[in-house]
Each structure stands twice: as C-alpha cells, then as structure tokens.
C-alpha cells in the first residue's frame, strides 16, 4: 500500500544528542511534507520514495481561506471502502437524499416527518489521466426539493478530488455562501480501522457560522456512510448492474496503490450462505 499519512497518528521522536551517537541509536527517516495545514508522511510497503506530490491548495497557503473547524471519526472498514463510495452512485439516493435534519441512523432517515424535504445528487466519477493517474474526481451537483418543488437557493456544485488512497479535496462553490474546501484524510490505525479527519477552510470574508454549518451537514451525511461501512462485507465479485459500472472502474483505479507485498486480509472472506 502506498499512502500519505497525517502526522498526528505517528510517534514523533526528537533526538537531541550531545556527542557520539552509538550505531544503534538511529531511527528511520520517513519522507514527509508540510502542506495545506497538515504534515504528511509517505509510506510504501516496499520502501519506495514518493512517486507523486500532494497538491497545494493556494487559497489555504495565502490565507484567503481560513481554518474553521474539524471532525474526527473512526470507521471499521478497509481503507479502500471509503473512496469506493464516490463511484457508488446508487447509494446517493438511498443514503443521502433524506434531508440532514432526519439524522444519521438509517433506520429512521426515511421518516414521514421530513419526507417533504429532499437532497438531490447527480454525480459522475472519473479517474484523472497521466501524470495524475493517482487522482480521481467525483463531480456532484446538489439541489434541494421542498414538497417536490426545486428550491434553487440550495443549488451548489461539489468537486471531490481523491489524491492517492487516503486524501480527498472536497471543494464547494455556492452563489451566495461563497467558496471553501473540506480536506478529508483517512489513516489506517489498525487492520480494518480507519481514522478519518475532515478539516474545513473557508473564505475569510464569510461568517464562521457558514462553514461550521456546512461541516455539520457533511458530517451527518458521512455518518450515514459509516453505518454502512461498519456493517458491510467486501465482495470481490459483487453482483452489479450496468449503472454500477463505475464501481468496477474504481476498483481497477484503486489497484495501483497495492504492490505484491501489500498486506492481504483473508479473514474477512465469507458469505451469507450459512
Ligand atoms: Fe456516501
């Protein structure tokens, strides 16, 4: 697996040694970079140096967009499951159509109380060509309907750019609410346990309540996915219809992040045919 990890999960050892350093007192140097308010460490199971760089979001560096908060989640799933969500369009309607007020528990999100307000998502997922073949993009158009009528004030575009297996740049653009970004980082902390952090940066000129609200809504939608990830089973050959073809394309795209020596989990195999 090749991956940039966010720094806060790693043990940082600062050695200030006054004189002769014995041979055994050495630590491995990890390729790292500081960018977009994060310190990232490169990991490759074969010890190969970074083969791509993390793109800079200029508005963060120039402080045109400022930090407005973050969320943290733990997900019981393989790292591949989280980005695969972007290619699974069918789930958008079932999971993310109910308005955010109906909460995160999928047993109750399709309640009568909120059925008059619905999110509508239209998305397309594509891998990027060389030299950015480690990136892919999901472009989503969001709209809101109230009693079946289009409420155009809530129209906005979201672009989710996946950079490698564990980073997503989620950029928003809205006619009145301005522009900003949510940076998602996914860090494996145990086999099948992921630490997911979302950090939001937003136009300095906009009141902080706007990005805080956006982060809250995003967090509600993300927690609906977590309920699935925590309970789903990975099938290497799932039964897919034509409309699901992006899932197989995504799996082919994600395969580039494995090498022969990547850890393989065999204990997750099994079926529901018991
Ligand atoms: Fe989702």
From TrEMBL:
<feature type="domain" description="3-ketosteroid-9-alpha-monooxygenase oxygenase component-like C-terminal">
    <location>
        <begin position="41"/>
        <end position="258"/>
    </location>
</feature>
<keyword id="KW-1133">Transmembrane helix</keyword>
<dbReference type="InterPro" id="IPR045605">
    <property type="entry name" value="KshA-like_C"/>
</dbReference>
<keyword id="KW-0812">Transmembrane</keyword>
<keyword id="KW-0472">Membrane</keyword>
<dbReference type="Pfam" id="PF19298">
    <property type="entry name" value="KshA_C"/>
</dbReference>
<dbReference type="GO" id="GO:0016491">
    <property type="term" value="F:oxidoreductase activity"/>
</dbReference>
<dbReference type="GO" id="GO:0008203">
    <property type="term" value="P:cholesterol metabolic process"/>
</dbReference>
<protein>
    <recommendedName>
        <fullName>3-ketosteroid-9-alpha-monooxygenase oxygenase component-like C-terminal domain-containing protein</fullName>
    </recommendedName>
</protein>
<dbReference type="InterPro" id="IPR050584">
    <property type="entry name" value="Cholesterol_7-desaturase"/>
</dbReference>
<keyword id="KW-0560">Oxidoreductase</keyword>
<dbReference type="GO" id="GO:0016020">
    <property type="term" value="C:membrane"/>
</dbReference>
<dbReference type="GO" id="GO:0005737">
    <property type="term" value="C:cytoplasm"/>
</dbReference>
């Amino acid at each position: 697996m090749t991956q940039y990890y966010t720094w806060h999960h790693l043990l940082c050892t600062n050695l200030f040694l006054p004189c002769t350093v014995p041979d055994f007192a050495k630590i491995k140097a990890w390729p790292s970079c500081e960018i977009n308010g994060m310190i990232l460490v490169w990991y490759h199971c074969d010890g190969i140096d970074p083969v791509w760089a993390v793109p800079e979001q200029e508005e963060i560096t120039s402080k045109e967009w400022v930090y407005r908060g973050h969320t943290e989640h733990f997900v019981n799933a393989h790292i591949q499951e989280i980005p695969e969500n972007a290619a699974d369009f069918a789930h958008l309607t079932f999971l993310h159509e109910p308005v955010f007020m109906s909460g995160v528990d999928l047993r109750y999100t399709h309640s009568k109380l909120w059925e008059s307000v619905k999110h509508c998502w239209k998305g397309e997922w594509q891998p990027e060509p060389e030299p950015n073949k480690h990136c892919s993009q999901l472009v989503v158009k969001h709209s809101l309907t109230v009693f079946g009528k289009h409420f155009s004030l809530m129209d906005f575009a979201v672009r989710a750019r996946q950079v490698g297996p564990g980073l997503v740049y989620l950029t928003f653009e809205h006619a009145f609410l301005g522009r900003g970004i949510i940076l998602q980082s996914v860090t494996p902390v145990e086999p099948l346990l992921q630490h997911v952090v979302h950090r939001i940066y937003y136009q300095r000129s906009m009141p902080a309540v706007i990005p805080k609200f956006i982060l809250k809504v995003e967090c509600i939608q993300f927690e609906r996915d977590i309920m699935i990830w925590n309970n789903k089973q990975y099938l290497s050959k799932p039964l897919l219809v034509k409309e699901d073809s992006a899932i197989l394309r995504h799996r082919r795209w994600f395969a580039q992040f494995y090498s022969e020596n990547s850890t393989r989990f065999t204990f997750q195999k099994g079926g529901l045919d018991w």
